[in-house]
Amino acid sequence: MASIYEYVRHPRSEELRQGRPVKTVDVRRINHQNFIVRFNARFGLKITLVVGTMWCAYLFSALALFALPSAIKQGTYFIVVWMSSSFLQLVLLPIIIVGQNIQAAAADKRAEDTYKDAEAVLKEASEIQQHLLAQDQAISQIIDHLRATLPKGDGLSSRS
Question: Among 16, 54, 118, 133, which is 20 to 30 Å from 80 by CA?
Answer without folding.
Answer: 54
